[in-house]
Amino acid sequence: MGDAPLDPEDAKIITLARAARQRAYAPYTAVAEGAAVRDTDGRTYAAATVENVDAALTMSAVRAAVAAAAASGVRRFEAVAIVSESRAPTAADLAVVAEFAPGVSVLLAAPDGSLRATVRA
After folding, report:
1. Closest CA to 65 of 77, 52, 51
2. Predicted TM-score (pTM) of this structure
3. Contact call for residues 75 and 99 (beta carbons, < 8 A)
4. 52-84 per-residue burial string, b: 16 or more CB within 10 A, e: under 16
5. What is the residue-wise DSSP string for 69-88?
6. Labelling 16: which of 2, 10, 63, 77 has CA 20 to 30 A away?
7. Which residue from 21, 41, 42 is spatially nearest to 108, judged by alpha carbons?
8. What is the DSSP letter of 25?
């Protein structure tokens, strides 16, 4: 993703998302993701994929991180990071982010933490 250095705060949420990914519970698909959101006060919330035998009850890492932040009273985000094998965030995850932060940058990183893409929610 170019030669520009990553903002230290963005590097931090990618690191938090990588750590969360290690705690994912994904016995059915083996697709583990980690996510972190940073609110407008600089607080961060991280979470991992939590699967259920009933796929409708599975919680993506992004949705879990947003839920943790929202449950803490956060209503605005300034950045989101996802660490995944995937090449793009799901439409559902982008919709959840857009509910609280339309147009916010979503950083997509590989499991090694390297930035793959930045998209807008």
Report:
1. 77
2. 0.93
3. no
4. eeeeeebbbbbbbbbebbbeeebeebebbbbbb
5. HHHTT---EEEEEEE-SSSS
6. 2
7. 21
8. B
Q: How many whole angstroms separate alpha carbon 113 and alpha carbon 94?
A: 20
Tell me the pLDDT of the chain (121 aa) as tens digits. 455 688 999 999 999 999 999 999 999 999 999 999 999 999 999 999 999 999 999 999 999 999 999 999 999 999 999 999 999 999 999 999 999 999 999 999 999 999 999 999 9
Cβ(82)–Cβ(110) below 8 Å: no
Give the Cα-Cα-Cα angle 25, 28, 32 (nearest 5 degrees).
Answer: 45
Residues 104, 77: Cα–Cα separation, whole Å: 7
Strands (E), 3-112: 34-39, 44-48, 77-83, 105-109
Tell me which amino acid residue 13 is. Answer: I
Task: Kindly report the length of the chain.
Answer: 121
Q: β-strand 44-48 against 105-109: which pairing, if any?
A: unpaired
